[in-house]
Amino acid sequence: MALTTVLPETFTRAVSALRQVRPREEIALEEVPPPTKLAPYSFALGASVLRRGEEVTTGRLILLHDPAGHEAWEGDTRLVCYVQAEVESDLANDPLLPQVTWGWLVDALDSHTDGYLAIGGGRGPTTPPPPPANTPPPPKSTLPPHSPPPRLSPYRGGGGATAGRHA
User: pTM to 2 decimals?
Assistant: First the structure.
């Protein structure tokens, strides 16, 4: 007798929606192995942003679903986003960079979703140590993944998460 697994409808609809995403030309998306210990159901996309054929930004979008709910998520579904991007050192050292990049994330969520719950995360640049005297310039600084990442309300189909914003 064959073993069959019935996936929760909320999860399958969310995965279907993510698979239908068609990003801009310079963004390459691919399905990647998701984490297996964070939730009973998970799905992940890897992304690379190319500029003149060179990878300048990478990231992952991970969908986690636990039908029993998860108190820390304030629901049964969590969408995790990690982004790492190279920036010039002078920009990486700008004290407003974390606030500005966080604003970009919130603006993108506001303009592309019907709402979300419990957004949270860490943000801030990491820079390589200063080079010894008389050496070539150091590599560009890197913006690390956000941790903990934003959490969205349960997916309900349509244009994205639909629950109102958590106060």
Answer: 0.67
